[in-house]
UniProtKB/TrEMBL annotation:
This is Cytochrome P450 26B1. InterPro entries: Cyt_P450 (IPR001128), Cyt_P450_CS (IPR017972), Cyt_P450_E_grp-IV (IPR002403), Cyt_P450_sf (IPR036396). Its main location: endoplasmic reticulum. Its cofactor is heme. It is a peripheral membrane protein. Belongs to the cytochrome P450 family.
Length: 445
């Protein structure tokens, strides 16, 4: 079936795709389509047909058959900006090999070595928010926070404040133009994206050269990559290292900033959860600005904090879904999906309709104390980090950042909404409040 053709039900299935209407965004639109047509329906995105898929049963099948039924389908601009050696552009065995190399950056010992760096940046940032005279835009400030963490954890070296601001501006230019028409002409979004990428590569190139010349112990992601390629005699080229750094920053920053913002918002809307979290942290001896170093093992007993973070990621998953292309014509939920069509698996709709979550619109961290939400059965009902061979590589790092951030916020600050009403949530490119979430922070004690 070609794009734009008439409905094409799978033999013996229901009578035709839901066709014709354009993707308008907004979950009520998709909810009404789902009610009419079920968990697999056709919609449109930028004038092209997309099959939107919801529900654990279908997601399990799609995500476990990556490379066979479906494959990645990034727009050309993403492929060009991230580069030919990026994970996003890799498939099959090459993808698997690259994931193994990258996975070293998220091992237990690697995460342990990142904790002091993350904590330092988070403490400085929250203190600075509290010292501000007026309200801050939490989403914009969280993007700065996650960028600073990414520079510290991935590269290690501190470029100095002026250079940091320059790098952040360049990175925002790259992110803004990542999804653009691939027209390489002066002033086009695509050209701006490529230029931003080149400036980042130039800076990363210098850091890599310095690191290659020094004998220092590596406690950064870049250092781990360099060391491991030396140890295994399979050196990553300069280009591969630079592309890896850009790709990891791109995957890490907006997603984690979205989750930080949703955490602030949910704790604002649910003061009883914040009180319970503060009490639990106090009982367990956590204090803002404490000089005692934090270790990964300190987070093991923070069950309530764990559940708060899980619930933030359930109710407002930063990534609302993932795009794939059908590699062959196949049947899903009684419908035939033609080869070459785009398929979108919806994380947000799956969370909203999962039978394991009662009253899904309510923010209730205690739901994760329930056995139904644990184990293999729950796996594809709850997937803020995706699933299958392309599941998020930085999941544990993201959760670690969120925990350090939540502890610092809850133990050291107080915050109030600076607008009359709560903002609406937008889902593209990641979940974020329409006005950025204007909040006044102050030091708690
Ligand atoms: C992939 C979510 C943070 C690195 C993914 C995917 C999701 C996701 C849903 C799968 C996308 C798909 O199926 O197409 C998130 C969320 C985060 C987060 C919600 C924060 C709360 C991070 C961080 C890093 C990272 C901190 C690394 C520093 C990656 C990479 C992939 C990925 C490299 C691609 C894996 C592959 O293609 O094999 N992430 N992510 N993410 N994520 Fe994350």
């Amino acid at each position: 079936m070609r794009t734009g053709e008439a409905p094409h039900p799978h033999p013996g299935s229901r009578s035709g795709w839901a066709v014709g209407e354009r993707e308008r965004g907004g979950s009520s639109f998709h909810a009404s389509r789902r009610k009419r047509h079920g968990n697999v329906f056709k919609t449109h995105l930028l004038g092209r047909p997309v099959v939107r898929v919801t529900g654990a049963e279908h997601l399990r099948r799609l995500l476990l058959e990556e490379h066979n039924l479906v494959g990645v389908s990034w727009p050309q601009s993403v492929q060009m900006i991230l580069g030919s050696s990026s994970l996003a552009n890799a498939i099959g065995d090459i993808h698997q090999h690259k994931r193994k190399v990258y996975a070293q950056l998220f091992s237990h010992s690697a995460l342990e070595s990142y904790v002091p760096r993350i904590r330092q940046v988070v403490m400085e940032t929250v203190r600075e928010w509290c010292a501000r005279e007026g309200p801050i835009s939490v989403y914009a400030e969280s993007r700065k926070l996650t960028f600073r963490i990414a520079v510290s954890v991935l590269l290690g070296s501190s470029p100095g404040e002026e250079k940091m601001i320059d790098l952040l501006t360049t990175f925002e230019q790259l992110t803004k133009n990542m999804f653009s028409l691939p027209l390489d002409i002066p002033g086009s979004g695509y050209r701006k994206g490529i230029q931003a990428r080149d400036r980042l590569h130039e800076y990363f190139g210098k850091v890599i050269e310095d690191m290659l010349q020094s004998d220092a112990e590596y406690s950064t992601a870049l250092g781990i990559l360099i060391q491991s390629s030396k140890d295994h005699g399979m050196g990553m080229s300069m280009q591969e290292l630079k592309e890896a750094m850009v790709e990891l920053m791109f995957a890490a920053c907006a997603t984690t900033a979205s989750a930080c913002t949703s955490l602030v918002l949910q704790l604002l809307k649910n003061p009883e959860v914040l009180t319970k979290l503060r009490t639990d942290l106090q009982i367990k001896g956590f204090q803002s600005g404490s000089a005692t170093p934090l270790r990964l093992s300190d987070f093991c007993h923070l069950r309530y904090l764990d559940n708060v973070i899980k619930e933030v990621l359930r109710l407002q998953p930063p990534v609302s879904g993932g795009y794939r292309v059908a590699l062959q014509t196949f049947e899903l939920g009684g419908w035939q999906i033609p080869k070459g069509w785009s398929v979108m698996y919806s994380i947000q709709d799956t969370h909203n309709t999962a039978p394991i979550f009662q009253q899904p619109d309510i923010f209730d961290p205690d739901r994760f104390a329930n056995d139904l939400t644990k184990g293999k059965e729950a796996r594809f009902h709850y997937l803020p980090f995706g699933g299958g061979v392309r599941r998020c590589l930085g999941k544990e790092l993201a959760k670690l950042i969120l925990k350090v951030f939540a502890i610092e916020l809850a133990t050291g600050s107080h915050w109030q909404l600076a607008t009359r009403t709560l903002p609406k949530m937008l889902m593209v490119p990641v979940a974020h409040p329409s006005d950025g979430l204007k909040v006044q922070f102050s030091a708690q004690f």
